[in-house]
Design a protein that fits this description.
The chain has 49 residues and is mostly helical. The chain is 55% helix and 0% strand.
Length: 49
């Protein structure tokens, strides 16, 4: 990867795509997903349990 930010962005996008198939979200995923969203200017993650 050309930079750490590029690698982190790819990880964020991959996780955002696979979370659609999750049956039950991980307990700490909302916190991590919202931190990614802040870093990359995305909308905060809304996960209903």
């Amino acid at each position: 990867f050309p930079s750490d930010e590029a690698a982190t962005k790819l990880l964020f996008l991959a996780l955002r795509n696979i979370e659609k198939d999750w049956k039950m979200p991980q307990r700490t995923w909302k916190l991590a997903a919202n931190q990614f969203a802040i870093m990359f200017g995305e909308e905060p993650v809304r996960i209903s349990v």
